[in-house]
Design goal:
Layout: H1 4-30, E1 34-42, E2 46-51, E3 59-68, E4 74-78, E5 85-88, E6 92-97, E7 111-115, E8 119-129
Antiparallel strand pairs: 1-8, 2-7, 3-6, 3-8, 4-5, 4-7
């Protein structure tokens, strides 16, 4: 039969392990994000980088806000071959809170704005380099 002291020690160790996990999760949630403003002018369809991570890092996107001035499809994606996340097909504002989803790009992969024609796009993103 186990000793009560041993059971209490195991119980307290389990609580300590869970607190370590919780603290790690909280620090990931509350760690600072960077604000990256951008102002882009497209003369034709294409991609333009708005955030290129440092070597060996990747971008984790938390929030994106922008406005386009023409009825042109505009979206965002990591790199130039990933599927475009279409945001607007007419001129106007767009805002997306991605906290909780936090999509990351691949290592050394830029976060791009993709436009399907001539348009000016200005705004900002919130994210982290991880």
């Amino acid at each position: 039969m186990p000793r009560y002291g041993h059971i209490a020690d195991v119980f307290l160790q389990n609580i300590a392990n869970k607190l370590d996990t919780l603290n790690t999760s909280i620090s990931e949630i509350t760690s600072a994000v960077a604000r990256k403003p951008f102002s882009l002018s497209f003369t034709a369809a294409g991609d333009q980088a708005i955030w290129t991570p440092a070597s060996g890092k990747r971008v984790r996107l938390h929030f994106i806000s922008f406005e386009s001035d023409a009825d042109v499809q505009v979206g965002w994606r990591f790199g130039t071959t990933e599927t475009v996340q279409v945001c607007r097909i007419t001129k106007g504002p767009y805002v997306a809170n991605l906290i909780g989803a936090n999509p990351p790009g691949d290592v050394d992969q830029a976060l791009n704005i993709r436009a399907e024609g001539a348009v000016n796009v200005k705004g900002y993103v919130l994210g982290q380099e991880i």
